[in-house]
Amino acid sequence: MEAKVSKKIMKKLILLIFIFTSFSAFSVEKKTNFSTEIFENAKANGRTIVINSYETWCGTCNIQVKILNQAEKEFKDIIFFSYEQSKNKDIAKKLAIDFWTTIVVYKGNDEIVRIIGQTDKKTIYSAIKKGI
User: Fold this and answer.
1) Does the residue 24 lie in any domain?
2) Domain range holding 60?
3) How far, in Å, CA of 132 to CA of 113, rounded?
4) From CA 43, how far away is CA 23, in angstroms rounded?
């Protein structure tokens, strides 16, 4: 009887280890690369800027980051900034961003679009294109 219980516990433990390592293998690299100086300069020069506010533990943010990483490769003339909301409250305050799943697109000094919690690639790309 004890052997059966031990095997069940061992199977559950192995399954948990597998699940944990699988999820960490698919984790998205996130970075804070926001620079006030570059942001202000880009706005003054009429550039298109995409800003992503995220949290490291946020599932929606993971999806957004994957889409934005792909967009950054496709839209070479656009400046992409990201920042971690809880660690960069000064940036959030400067941009009036209250939610960590927020993507904001600027064209020069004008905010063109702000989307919150959006994970649909087509919608995110459409928002980016509005700034072009």
Assistant:
1) no
2) 36-129
3) 12
4) 38
